[in-house]
Amino acid sequence: MNGNLLGQNSNAWKGGWTVTKHGYVQVYARGNPSSNHRGYIFEHILIAERILGKRLPDGATVHHVNRNPADNRPGNLVICQDNSYHQLLHKRARAYEAVGDPSALRCGLCGCYDNQPDMYVDKQGYAKHKACLSARAKKLVRKRLGLAENSPIPKKAIKKLCVECGIEFKSYPSTRQLFCSQFCKNKYQIGKQRNHSLKKEGGHE
Ligand SMILES: [Zn+2]
Ligand SMILES: [Zn+2]
Ligand SMILES: [Zn+2]
């Protein structure tokens, strides 16, 4: 398209709107502070700003609930304060579509969805099955010791796996170490306390 021909003079003029290759609708609104150099603004931004009564704050994004980027009916739009919240909505939508439970987490190792108690969630929010982690750690230990697949691992080597996440320790201290990190230690203790209080609550029923 000819960059010198803008808006109504452009070859691509379709009555003031256009659809991007990703399916988003752009409308012609020269003069709108949120419009780009060609005078176009994403329709979902335009509508969100109309609802909000002002420009979207810096970093805010707009989510399409039914994930159709061209469906800009106000009820289909959710204003997200930042991209990480927006990504969370997508993560929950994917989980809901996969297993019918928006809070299910996807294991980064086997790709299956599951519920939190069976998963280890790291600081970045990535989830892995505890069983998958420990299987991977055992595989690494076997490889390091030159053992065949599924062969038993000496107790001593098992001791070098983190009790919380099952990851093999990076360094090999001579004393018994339980956790790969302070993070895992804290997590393990919080989990223990929670189990303890759950048991207590259960006892009163
Ligand atoms: Zn979205
Ligand atoms: Zn898994
Ligand atoms: Zn750990």
What does it look like?
- The chain is 34% helix and 14% strand.
- By secondary structure, the chain is of the alpha+beta class.
- Strand 6 and strand 7 form a beta hairpin.
- The longest helix is centred in the C-terminal third of the chain and has 23 residues, at 182-204.
- The chain is elongated and about 75 Å long.
- It binds zinc ion (3 copies).
- One zinc ion binds at residues 162, 164-165, 167, 179-181, 184.
The largest pleated sheet is described as: 3 strands, antiparallel
Please report the number of helical segments: 5
Give the oligomeric state of the chains in this entry, treating copies of one chain as homo and distinct chains as hetero. Answer: single chain
Record field, number of beta strands? 9
Strand content: 5-15%
Secondary-structure-derived class: alpha+beta
Overall number of structural domains: 2
Order of helices and strands: EEEHEEHEEEEHHH
Give the N-terminus to C-terminus distance in angstroms. 72 Å
Q: What integer is the average pLDDT?
A: 84
Which small compounds were modeled alongside the protein?
zinc ion
Strands in their spatial order, largest beta sheet: 1-2-3
Shape: elongated
Helix content: 25-40%
* Uncertain residue ranges: none
Radius of gyration: 26 Å
